[in-house]
TrEMBL record:
Positions of transmembrane segments: 59-80, 86-103, 110-132, 152-173, 180-204, 224-244, 256-277, 289-308, 315-332, 344-362
Keywords attached to this entry: Membrane, Transmembrane, Transmembrane helix
Domain of life: Bacteria
Name assigned to this protein: DUF2157 domain-containing protein
Length: 390
């Protein structure tokens, strides 16, 4: 039997077209491409493909890789003790060698993701041990000690975060594991935060910037939210660029975009919510009133529309999870002081209803909302809307 993965590979090689692939999938599911049921429902292959697990054998091999790695790690601890660099260096080489078979030859998705993340963890451990011992960096006991380590911190942070990002780039170049795109985005985001922090610190110590008073702290922290917002927009833009390169969602770039959208969503949602509602970012107090609830509804609407337009539930799921958890937080803290149903409970109802509705008819909703609201020139660049009509 030909699998979905084989059909996708045939499309990538140009042996068949995407429409032929979708027709074969419908034929396998319904017994006939022209069946009446297939005309009324989206094709089985039209949903966003997460492609995280390749099947039962993939899970089986993943368990084996985890157990084998854990056994080797325990053995290395026994023989090498506290020689961290050597121990994690052996682990990194071992995981790279395993990836040559599991990823390069067998293309097992879940196992490849686990191996790739394990490799990056080993690289991070090596670099952390190297910068700590090489630059004499230790946990400071007071702010003065931290200030004294400023010259070493700049180089150490660059080596650590930049080194992990470089390792992720090399790993992706060799094995094409999509989760590396997310790892690269996280490292570059952390590196941006790090450089901005050093810039502000140097500005204060050199007299170019004034040390803020305690009363200015809320405004300062609120302004600091522009950094994750800009990072989130950049990551989202790269994800959309990958999506536009692969409208049919059959190449590895589409899988990379999935991880980029997962990462960009929290970076976008939290700053936008705090800045638009004026919530307290110092003590983490989140108690939306009427105006905040209106802004929250607007944000949900915007994110839902964007997710529908680019056909990415991976952007919407973290967004709804954030708003849903925010509503639960508010309800729990309000339960002791209020009777009846708090107004913010409506947000939970909306979020739950959206999740259920989108899970049942994502492509049909896309057709009803996106098709009449966007020009044809833009629709031709976005993922096609796969809804059959009689």
């Amino acid at each position: 039997m030909i699998t979905r993965e084989q059909l996708d590979e045939a499309v990538r090689r140009g042996l068949i077209g995407a429409e032929q692939r979708d027709g074969l999938i419908r034929f396998a599911d319904t017994g006939s491409v022209a069946s009446e049921e297939a005309k009324d429902t989206p094709a089985a292959g039209f949903d966003e493909q997460m492609r995280l697990i390749g099947g039962g054998n993939d899970v089986f091999v993943t368990i084996g890789v985890v157990m084998l790695s854990a056994g080797l790690f325990a053995a290395l601890i026994t023989f090498l003790g506290d020689r961290t660099t050597v121990m994690f260096g052996i682990m990194a080489v071992f995981l790279w060698a395993v990836a040559e078979f599991v990823t390069r030859q067998r293309r097992m998705r879940l196992a490849s993701t686990v191996i790739g993340l394990g490799f990056l963890f080993a690289v991070q451990a090596i670099l952390t041990d190297w910068v700590v011992t090489g630059y004499g960096i230790a946990m400071p006991e007071n702010p003065l000690q931290l200030a004294a380590m400023r010259p070493q911190l700049g180089i150490a942070g660059t080596v650590l975060l930049g080194g992990v990002a470089t390792a992720a780039v090399l790993y992706f170049w060799r094995f094409r594991v999509p989760v590396m795109a997310g790892a690269i985005a996280l490292c570059l985001t952390a590196l941006s935060f790090f450089y901005v922090t050093l810039f502000l610190y140097d500005g204060v110590t050199e007299g170019r910037l004034y040390l803020p008073a305690l009363d200015d702290l809320p405004d300062l922290l609120r302004n600091a939210l522009y950094m994750p917002l800009i990072s989130g927009l950049a990551i989202f833009a790269v994800g959309v660029m990958f999506d536009l390169r692969d409208r049919e969602r059959v190449t590895v770039w589409s899988d990379c975009a999935f991880w980029l959208h997962v990462i960009s969503a929290p970076l976008l949602v939290h700053p936008l919510f705090i800045m638009s509602t004026g919530q307290d970012v110092v003590f983490g107090e989140i108690e939306p009133g009427t105006s905040a609830m209106v802004m929250l509804a607007v944000l949900i609407t915007v994110f839902v529309y964007v997710a529908l337009a680019i056909d990415r539930r991976s952007l919407l799921i973290p967004t709804l999870a954030y708003f849903g958890s925010l509503g639960i937080y508010y309800l729990v803290n309000s339960a002791a002081n209020q009777t009846g149903i708090p107004p913010f409970a409506l947000i939970l109802l909306v979020v739950g209803a959206l999740i259920m509705a989108f899970g049942a008819g994502w492509q049909r909703i896309r057709g009803l909302i996106i098709r009449p609201t966007l020009p044809t020139s833009l629709l031709d660049k976005l993922p096609p809307i796969r809804v059959h009509t009689t």
